[in-house]
Design brief:
By secondary structure, this protein is mainly β. The protein has one domain: Beta-galactosidase, Chain A, domain 5 (Distorted Sandwich), CATH 2.70.98.10. The protein is about 5% helix and about 40% strand. It has 4 helices and 26 strands. The strands form 4 sheets. It has a 10-stranded antiparallel β-sheet with strand order 2-1-12-13-14-15-25-21-20-17, covered by helices on one side. The protein is globular and about 60 Å long. The relative contact order is 0.14. The model has no long low-confidence stretch (mean pLDDT about 95).
Length: about 400
C-alpha cells in the first residue's frame, strides 16, 4: 500500500510546517500528475495566511486553514472558479474587524469561493436592547484559524485529503469544534467536503451553519442561469420581491445594483440527495453542488450583480438555516441544539463542468428530481421563511 501523511500544523505539539511540496515520487503507487504545495503567504493583507494548493492533474484549488478551512479559488483547465472581490485577499483574520460597531466588519475579509458562516450565528448583525453588537454578520468561523492540519495522500487510489480542526470556543460561552476534510481524486473535476461539528461543552450548544459558495466571471455573465429542483421560492426582502419573476437568471453588470436574496425549499431523490447548477449563458461552463436535504435543508441564492470593480458575484448557499437574523431563525426552530458531546456531520460536493455535454447531463439529473413539478413562487417575503 502506498499512502503517506504529513502534519502541517499541530499547535498542541508545537508543529508548524512553513512550506511543503509533495507529489507522486514522495508517495509511490500508480497515481501520477498531482502535486500539493503548502506555503505561508507574505505581504499586504494576506501576510501570514497559510495556503495549501492541491492540484489533482485536472482540478486545482487553494484551501486556507487560516481562514476556517475556506476554499479561496479553483481552476479546471483554463476556467477559473471563484470571483473577483474588491478585497485583495486572501485576508488574514487579524486584519478583519469583526467587532466593529456596524457589525459588517466580516466583509473586509470576504473573497473566497467557499467560506462557512456560523457557527454560533450566520445572518445579519444583531444588537441587544442597549444597542450593543451581539452577533456580527455571518459569525466567526470563517475568520478562525485551524489549530491542527493534516495532509494524506493515497498513491494507489489517487485520493488526496486535507483535514483541519478549528475551535470556536470561549470561556463562559459555547465550545464548538469543526473538523473539516477536503478530498479530491487524481484526474477528476470534483472536490468533496466533509464537516463534523461537535459540542465540546458540558452544556447544550446552539448551531447555525451555511456554506457561502460564490461565483463570478467568467461563469457568471449576462444570461447565466441557476437550475434548481425547487419546490418553493421566497424573496427574503421587498427588494428581492422586485425581481422574483427572474429569480433564476442573471443580468449583466449594473452599477449600483442592490443585492437580492431568495430562499428555497428543494426537492430531493428518495435518498434525500439533491443537486443545484449554475451555468453560463452559452451553457458550456457550469458548477454543480451536491448535498442532502436531510442535513442541509435550507438553500439560498444571493445576487450581487453590481459593477465588476465592486464585486460582480452570486452565492449558492446550502445551510441548516436561512441567513435571516438569528432571533428570527430561533423563533422558527431553525437554530440547531447540540447536547453535550453531540456531533453533526455535513457533506457537500462541488463538481465543475467544462463543456456543453457535461452541463446538459447536470440539467437532466436535476429535471429527473423535479419530474415536471413547478415550484410555488411567492411574490412577497412570507413566514416562516422570511420576516413578512
Amino acid at each position: 500500500m502506498h499512502a503517506k501523511s504529513w502534519t502541517l500544523v499541530d499547535v498542541g505539539r508545537d508543529v508548524f510546517v512553513d512550506s511543503l511540496c509533495v507529489g507522486p515520487t514522495d508517495v509511490g503507487g500508480t497515481a501520477t500528475r498531482y502535486q500539493v504545495k503548502k506555503s505561508t503567504l507574505r505581504g499586504g493583507l494576506r501576510d501570514g495566511v497559510d495556503a495549501v494548493e492541491i492540484d489533482n492533474g485536472r482540478l486545482r484549488f487553494v484551501v486556507l486553514p487560516t481562514r476556517g478551512m475556506g476554499i479561496w479559488k479553483a481552476w479546471c483547465g483554463d476556467l477559473e472558479i471563484g470571483w473577483r472581490s474588491p478585497v485583495q485577499g486572501p485576508v488574514h483574520p487579524k486584519f478583519v474587524p469583526l467587532a466593529e460597531p456596524t457589525g459588517l466588519g466580516w466583509l473586509a475579509g470576504f473573497d473566497e469561493l467557499l467560506c462557512r458562516c456560523g457557527l454560533e450565528s450566520n445572518g445579519g448583525p444583531v444588537y441587544d436592547e442597549q444597542g450593543r453588537l451581539q452577533y456580527a454578520l455571518h459569525g466567526r468561523i470563517a475568520n478562525t484559524t485551524a489549530h491542527r492540519v493534516e495532509l494524506s495522500i493515497d498513491g494507489d487510489s489517487g485520493e488526496i485529503a486535507l483535514k483541519g480542526v478549528i475551535d470556536e470556543a470561549r470561556l463562559y460561552h459555547q465550545k464548538l469544534q469543526l473538523a473539516s476534510t477536503v478530498r479530491t481524486r487524481v484526474g477528476e473535476s470534483v472536490l468533496r467536503i466533509s464537516d463534523e461539528v461537535v459540542n465540546l461543552s458540558a452544556e447544550e450548544a446552539q448551531l447555525e451553519l451555511l456554506y457561502h459558495i460564490n461565483f463570478g466571471q467568467p461563469l457568471l455573465d449576462a444570461g447565466s442561469k441557476v437550475v434548481l429542483p425547487a419546490a418553493r421560492v421566497i424573496p427574503q426582502t421587498p427588494r428581492a420581491a422586485d425581481g422574483i419573476s427572474a429569480w433564476d437568471t442573471y443580468e449583466r453588470e449594473q452599477r449600483g445594483f442592490a443585492e437580492q436574496v431568495y430562499l428555497f425549499e428543494l426537492l430531493a431523490d428518495a435518498a434525500g440527495e439533491t443537486q443545484t447548477l449554475l451555468r453560463n449563458a452559452h451553457g458550456n461552463y457550469g458548477v454543480s453542488l451536491h448535498f442532502t436535504t436531510k442535513t442541509l435543508p435550507c438553500f439560498t441564492i444571493w445576487k450581487s450583480t453590481q459593477a465588476a470593480s465592486d464585486g460582480y458575484v452570486t452565492g449558492l448557499e446550502p445551510g441548516i438555516n436561512y441567513p435571516n437574523l438569528r432571533p428570527f431563525e430561533s423563533e422558527q426552530g431553525r437554530v440547531a441544539r447540540l447536547a453535550p458531546g453531540e456531533k453533526r456531520v455535513f457533506e457537500l460536493r462541488l463538481e465543475v463542468h467544462v463543456d456543453a455535454e457535461a452541463v446538459a447531463v447536470a440539467e437532466t439529473k436535476i429535471n429527473q428530481i423535479l419530474q415536471g413539478r413547478e415550484p410555488k413562487v411567492h411574490d412577497l417575503p412570507t413566514l416562516p421563511w422570511a420576516p413578512a
